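Quality-control log, excerpt.
Job 1 of 2 completed; input and output follow.
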Amino acid sequence: MRFRRLVLLLGTLGLITISPHASFVIAQEGSKLIVDSRFDIVDAPSQAELVQQVVDFPPDAWTSPHSHGGQAINLVLEGEITLRQGGVDKRHTAGQSWTDSTGQVHAAGNTGSGKARLLTNFLLPKEVKQTTVEGTSQLQPSVTYEARFPIPTLTADAEIRQQAIALEPGWRESKGYGGFVANIVVDGELRFTINGSEKSYKGGEAWSARAGLPVNGENLSSNGARIFTTYLLPKGASLSVTPGPVDPKISDNTTQANDLGSVWLWPTLTIALLAVITAAGATLLRRSRAR
């Protein structure tokens, strides 16, 4: 309480300046902001789907060179990730972020000594291919969790905010959101009541909510939890607002995330599988002709 009063006093005196894209968070009781990023959304009205991914990189793992059909936003949760683009490498450590433009060919890899974890969002127009592979890689990262959400029409000046938040045992929260919000539980188990519908969510399970709907969350377990949250907001909107009443016209928007735990780029796996099938077919054909 004293800290909040001090912040208000310093702000009144003009001793604190907050830029439009600065992250300024007073942590709620029982929660801790781990990492945070914020970017403007490119071509906001054309976006139709949000794809959230939690991607794990073993040491020396690299994606294949590739491009995306929409804007991609990346935030390093653990370890370090190097972005390779146009022959230039740029290292990003935990808490740092970057965005990939549509059609931009690049690759990302773990150049650190330990495991790295990346939180990624794709903003995709309708019926656009998410990823186009442009090359190969011997050791791929793996998509541990993935969830897809249809998103409402965005304003032309919309922005995206990514956060990973640690939630202690006993954490409770009641709020509404200033824009569309999507979540994947990374670790632990949490209970949420979203627009009057209650459900428990374990690692890899996901949900979303529209702006202003009432959302109550709690951690009833004896263990901590982590959640990956993505906000799609009108420019300058607050992350949280006073929640409105339950809207019976809006059904529960829970999404079951895919617990993939496998190679990162499915096209790479598909190509390899087709090659094996083709080779096996050719072998059988040669044997039948020999007979």
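Job 2 of 2 completed; input and output follow.
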Amino acid sequence: MFRNREDAALQLAESLKGRQFQRPLILAIPRGGVVIGAVLAQELGAELDVVLSRKLGAPEQPELAIGAICEDGKVYFNHYAEELLDLSDDYVMEESRHQLAEIERRKKLFREDRPPASITGRSVIVTDDGIATGSTMIAGLQTIKAQSPLEIVVAVPVNSPERIPEIRHWCDDLVYLEAPEGFWAIGQFYEDFSQIQDEEVVALLRQSATSIIDRGENGQHGSFRGNSRPAHV
């Protein structure tokens, strides 16, 4: 059980400090993932940006993910979506348009006037406060992989054990702290799992960008090497 996202992120950072990264870039899934990502960026001396993917909700059941869409418009469908649900092309197109509009809003709000971080040739660490269905994570990973990173490491505090094989398929390494049987929701592993507001995400991204400028690196990190070994890999 983690006290909150900051506590989980600090523990996760310790599990990553034994690795060598080249110009490390943290890509966090908003909103909760940005709290995790900001701590990782600080602890690892990495650049922080967001990966903007959104869940596609099922008809009449918006909380049930049929898949996810990323900012480049690529859609990932959960393996059960078409088998268990009667999905029309019109519904999928309309839900995709709705989520792309929200992605565009978040892009303008979160990145402000900053361009997306360069991914090519870098060690990219993709994070969130946990993985349940894996839809938004996999949609993001598909987009990231297309931009030729040196490596992709998915790092999360808690992971659904059922999703581990599929997540591994889309990354070079998967690091997590907890993946217990009986997993049913990410929030069950946090004492405080309060909703994160847009304003907090904006503030964390600004603070991280300012920290990079203060270090005089402008996002061009060298290799990083820590002391300890990863947890679950």
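Post-run check on job 2. The helical segments are 5-16, 32-44, 81-84, 89-111, 135-145, 164-169, 198-214.
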